[in-house]
Design goal:
- By secondary structure, this protein is an all-alpha fold.
- It has one domain: Amino acid/polyamine transporter I (Up-down Bundle), CATH 1.20.1740.
- The chain is 70% helix and 1% strand.
- Helix 7 (115-146) runs antiparallel to helix 17 (402-436).
- It is a multi-pass membrane protein.
């Protein structure tokens, strides 16, 4: 109900509020280059955007939070926060980028608060991207290890996407027949995956799994903490992301995301229908009732097995994507703004896609309710198989076998993650292009003698992201990595809302700032409190002063966590101060001229 009201009413108001014009020239047309700026059909771009923003977080976050604090507070945060905060955040990030030549939120805020503010936000975003790449690559590897059938299916669907891109853009094949043919191929890949599962090293897999290398892979970096097969998949995923991010968007990004969107729509929509059918008709393999291991409300401090943690502010950081996510502002003002055919498409693609991700988060909570969660402290490793297992049970309501349903839901999850991972690497390059300076519409290979070329080059910049991301993952501190990712991601959302508020204030002094300013203030408060708990209580007090860190590796990890957390907090507070000063000058004094929305 809240999602419907948000899209029908609030998004229409916001479209008029930012004065989107269907006839205006978008950056995709103005700077069309066949590489990054490519006007796209609305359903194709919707598929890319939705696939890119909906990674593993809207699944892991709700499942973990629901197990710790109960399903009621988790569901309320999704139902209320998504249409009033998350969808607004995505929409204004996309709309603002359209008014600034398809540039990022870092460039936008730099227009109003100066070069220092721009660089602070861009570096903040770049560091967040590294955490995103690390977390998403890890999650893909965990799913590949748990469901080797998905490996085969994923490889086939990437291959189909490459062929589909050539079919559409080189041979100008008819769109609808091509869609029918290639989407059927993607679903057929699920059947092939069931017949021919694939793993790199030996493990506990279904019968008939093809294992490429002998032994358990104990020699692979990170195998001690993650297991040989999981640790081995991580570099594969990162290399794939680096290569995919360097390709023109029409080669893989657009066709793959469009095709994967049908998986996602089927998975999310099919699970929703299956829940309704199974509940009223009782056609599922087991009753669709809330498992006894899941409480409606587990108290402010949550369940003891997960380690007592305060619901406020940690629930609101644990559930990031699904309610509000700073990563989305990078997608909206990065790849999506460079491909938008008409300004008015921003309503469906920006606001509507976020509602779709909220629905995914609600489905994830439903899989938790059905399958239960016996290991709340297991984090990512326990949450991901839970989603596939619970989804498989739910889909039996529609006559799908539990095994096929579980593999299909695991593929849905991986299709989210793979698209988000290489989109993140591409966005990291965009951040660096703006830091070192690259004219709009120009790309750089990174292979020239110019040092700046290496940092912004599409072939070389991914190295700056995947190498530190890989080091973070194989250190074995993935639980810590998730906490840092959550805090940085939510704080970036607050800064994106700050950017939108500054833009609106400078555009017209009669514009109301409540729609973006209030969510910004809430998110700044929540995230700084959450990161402060991570820095000062969990690490400084428990790990260092109380001796919780009982090894040199644990001590160094705590020090690194504290350093990263403090840097994020300081950068955020400095940017809030600059933004507040700018808004105050514009609204209270005539000495600062208001900027037109198209000025840059």
């Amino acid at each position: 109900m809240t999602f419907t009201a948000g899209y029908v009413g609030y998004s229409r108001y916001l479209t008029r509020f930012v004065e989107l014009d269907e006839e205006a020239e978008t950056p995709a047309h103005k700077y069309e280059d066949g590489q990054e700026y490519v006007p796209s059909k609305k359903p194709v771009l919707l598929g890319h955007h939705y696939s890119s923003i909906a990674g593993g977080a809207p699944i892991v976050g709700p499942i973990t939070a629901g197990a710790i604090w109960g399903w009621v507070p988790a569901l309320l945060w999704i139902a209320i926060g998504n249409p009033l905060m998350g969808a607004v955040h995505d929409f204004v990030s996309l709309s603002g980028s359209l008014r600034h030549e398809g540039k990022s939120i870092g460039y936008m805020i730099g227009e109003y608060v100066g070069e220092s503010g721009k660089n602070m936000l861009l570096w903040f975003a770049f560091l967040t991207i590294v955490l995103v790449v690390a977390v998403f690559a890890l999650v893909v590897a965990i799913v590949f290890n748990a469901y080797p059938q998905v490996v085969t299916a994923s490889l086939l669907y990437i291959g189909l996407a490459l062929v589909f891109g050539v079919y559409l853009y080189q041979f100008n094949g008819p769109f609808i027949p091509g869609t029918i043919l290639f989407v059927a191929g993607v679903f057929a890949a699920v059947w092939v995956g069931l017949q021919y599962p694939l793993a790199l090293f030996a493990g506990d897999y279904p019968a008939g799994t093809i294992v490429l290398f002998g032994g358990a892979g104990n020699w692979v970096f990170g195998a001690g903490a993650l297991g040989g097969n999981t640790a081995a998949w991580i570099p594969f995923v990162m290399v794939y992301a680096a290569i995919a991010s360097a390709l023109p968007v029409w080669v893989l990004l657009q066709p793959r995301d469009y095709l994967s969107s049908f998986l996602l729509y089927t998975g999310v929509g099919g699970a929703t229908v299956a829940i309704i059918v199974g509940t009223f008709l009782g056609t599922s393999s087991q009753s669709l009732v809330i498992d006894s291991s899941i409480g409606a409300f587990e108290g402010f401090w949550g369940v003891e097995e997960a380690g007592l943690a305060p619901l406020f502010p940690l629930l609101f950081i644990t559930i990031a994507c699904g309610t509000i996510s700073g990563f989305h502002s990078l997608v909206s003002s990065g790849t999506t703004a460079k491909q938008l055919d008409k300004e008015t498409d921003a309503r469906l693609i920006g606001y509507g896609s976020m509602l779709g991700e909220g629905l995914l988060a609600a489905v994830a909570l439903s899989t938790l309710a059905v399958a239960g969660f016996a290991d709340p402290e297991g984090g990512i490793g326990a949450a991901l198989p839970n989603f596939a297992e619970g989804g498989g049970i739910i889909l039996t309501s529609l006559g799908v076998s539990e095994t096929v349903g579980a593999v299909f839901m695991a593929l849905v999850l991986c299709s989210f993650l793979l698209t988000s991972t290489d989109t993140a690497v591409r966005l990291g390059r965009y951040m660096m292009e703006e830091i070192v300076g690259t004219p709009a519409g120009r790309t750089d290979t990174g292979l020239s003698a110019d040092p700046a070329s290496f940092f912004r080059g599409r072939y070389t910049n991914p190295i700056l992201q995947v190498v530190p991301a890989y080091v973070l993952v194989v250190s074995g501190q993935w639980v810590v990595l998730w906490q840092l990712f959550g805090g940085a991601n939510q704080l970036l959302a607050a800064l994106a809302l700050l950017t939108a508020t500054v833009w609106l204030a400078n555009w017209d002094d009669s514009k109301q700032l409540v729609s973006t300013g209030v969510p910004m203030a809430i998110m700044v408060t929540i995230t700084i409190l959450g990161l402060s708990i991570l820095v000062f209580y969990e690490n400084l007090y428990l790990n260092l002063l109380q001796g919780g860190a009982d090894s040199l590796e644990a001590i160094l990890s705590s020090v690194v966590q504290m350093a990263i957390g403090l840097v994020l907090i300081v950068l955020a507070l400095a940017l809030v101060r600059l933004g507040y000063r700018n808004i105050s000058n514009v609204r209270r004094g005539p000495e600062t001229p208001a900027a037109e929305p198209g000025d840059d």
